[in-house]
Specification:
alpha+beta; four-stranded mixed sheet
Length: about 210
Amino acid sequence: MHQGGKMKLTCTKSSIVTLTPAELSIGSTVGLQRQLKCLQNSRSGKSLKDYEKYWGDPGAKGLWGNSIEGALGEFALAKYLGVYPTGISGYDSTDVGEHYEVRTRPHPLDNLFLKKRDKKDKYYVLVIGSYGVYELKGWISAPEVFIHEEWYHNNDGRTSMSYWVPDEELNDIKSLPEDLWHIQEINQTYSQNLSQNTKTIPYSSLETF
């Protein structure tokens, strides 16, 4: 069976990534541009209310800080993998390379989360940190998240409705696949399980009216 491949770590073997001043400058500018775009597109200019409705409380750093740190988290993963931070290309672009979406959180106890509308064919990476120093805490594929409906909740009203991934379900960052083989295998296994659990009624057993 095809086992795919793991990323070749071209920058560092440590899961801790420190961005240079130049990388911080570029990443921060990307984050600012994203938030400006959100302000332009928000309904009636109420960007904060829009954010709270779909994502919950933005926290102490607010929308500007979150946008900047989100972009810097993407730069951290891109630096680690030695690939281009494609998220700078536009709103709908994949965050890093062709297959990786990033969730940047400030606190070590924060969890990775997905929304129902998130991309179904990507790997999601949890990045923990702020101000230029980030830990790549782990990854999980989208299909592995969306099959767990019990993960979809709002933390007893403290957050927006999302799939909240337990830390123990994350894979080590060093095992991050370089292609979609893992997602394809997950989808194939899920389809086989559905087929096995679906009972076919023989035509001869059907009543004729």
